[in-house]
Amino acid sequence: MRQDTLLPPDLADCARQLAARGRLLAERDPELYRTAVLGQEQLGKFFATELGWRVDVVEHADMVRLHKRRQDVPGTRGPRLRRESRDRPLAPRLVLIVVALVCEQLWRRPRITVNDLMQAVSQVCAADSADGLLPRFRIVPDEEVGKREARENRQSIVDALRLLDADGTIVFEGDLDHAVDEDGADGVVAASRDRLSARFSSLSPSLLKLSQLPPDRHVEALASDRVPDDADVDDGGAEDGGEEDWDTAAPGEHNARTATTVRRHRAVRRLVDDPGTDPVADHYLQSSTGRNRALNVLHALGLVGTVRRDWWQVGDPTGLGSTMDFPHGRRMERQAALALLRHLGTRPMLDGGEAPVTSAEIESLFERIRERLPRWAAAYDRQQAALARAAASELVDAGFLVDVAEPPDQATATPEPHWRPTPAARMWQVKVTEPDTSDSHHRSGGHHTSGGHQTSDGTVPKRPVVPDDSEGGLW
Question: Cα–Cα distance between 333 and 394 in angstroms, integer?
């Protein structure tokens, strides 16, 4: 890598948090924000050169914003709902639509009560729901809308406001939990127009001519950084059916970047964004030049990478640039995920690689654990399938498993979930130690109610924050 494109060390923390969360706010990270403002030229140059992403410093909004784009957006990733329960599922389609509608209303009225906001969103949906442009969104039960549907719609508004509050777009005065009830207490939502305008990273949908493109090309269009011409829209972007990217369709006319630069940006984006990366599917990472340059980018960000011929795994030892804490946490789902990870490392390998792991295999593993530790996972008694899916989901998020689509079973007509282990599962060592259940142990004050304790050491994954002596447990 050229020496002038390396990131100064004092900006590494800023860049790492920007890469993980997309923004720095003055009220939440004052020191990182000041450092980023002072070094905005170096930050902008680094992200533009190495990742093809744009950095905006919006000082009047007290925000530094990183506009991230990816053509290969992971389908299992997105904003997660923030509720009182421990589970944080991905925000459904309705909540994402409501987020856009809430932003539209807040742009017109930057300060509004929750009840007025709900009514405004409901009126917008009512005007377009008949044509199928927006979903039906009724917040008051009547003859056509039941109490359950109305409550779920109000819950979607609350979820949308929580997502906007989490990224600093709005400030809420009141109790959002009570706003879900029909006669709940009202509150006030205040928004910054400057921050609202900085939320969107893509070009205008009207400029991108999304209405003239098939739905399967919308992600490609939104991830592009140039406006398509008429030829791109008419012929689908390429002679072979539209698979060629706009960034490389006409580099001499529309974009000065070469095809090699585009491939480099894609490869490094995956390294910075994902828990693990398969270098076999990327010719750039297989070359010595690409490998060295990618490692230099990771070093500039303060990340630690482990490189194998079949897998790249990158970790953040500080946790500043991580949105995951695997394997930390004593939730039952996390304990089950660690037990499953240990099992994956001991399975025999096939000639063609790792054999897929099915839900039945995971349930059988948990049943064997419960034979030794009857009180472990008592909350999932007779719900082993749900625990298996939860554990597998944890490992999918951390890059140890990949969802595999399977045709439905002929007898039940429902697909059996199963997952393919990635090489990352062989890069970890997990040790399970069961507790001492002797009488002397209990008399001396031991308090292991069910299960043992797991210690994970070895290679540090990308998004999870894992010190070498980290501990999780079956307890």
Answer: 8
Phi-psi region of 442 (alpha: psi -120 to 50; beta: other; left: phi over 0): alpha
Query: Residue 307 in contact with residue 423, Cβ under 8 Å?
Result: no
Q: Determine how many CB atoms are found less than 10 A away from the CB of residue 346.
A: 9
**135 Cβ contact partners less than 8 Å away, ≥ 6 residues apart:** 94, 97, 125, 129
The neighbouring-strand residues paired with 421 are: 401
Rounded distance between C-alpha atoms, residue 415 and residue 2, angstroms: 50
For residue 227, give the 3-state DSSP assignment.
coil
Residue 220: CB atoms within 10 A of its CB come to 21
287: CB partners within 8 A, 6+ apart: none
| Identity of the highest mean pLDDT range in 11-15, 127-131, 432-436, 471-475 | 11-15
Task: Dump pLDDT digits (tens) for 297-334.
Answer: 999 999 988 888 889 988 888 877 776 777 776 788 88
CA distance 141 to 152: 11
* Structure token pair of residue 210: 């999304």
Sign of the CA dihedral running 112, 118, 121, 127: negative
How many CB atoms lie under 10 A from the CB of residue 272?
25
Neighbours of 6 (CB within 10 A): 15
Asked if 439 and 429 touch (Cβ cutoff 8 Å), the reply is no
Give the type of residue at 426.
R
Count other Cβ atoms within 10 Å, centred on residue 259.
11
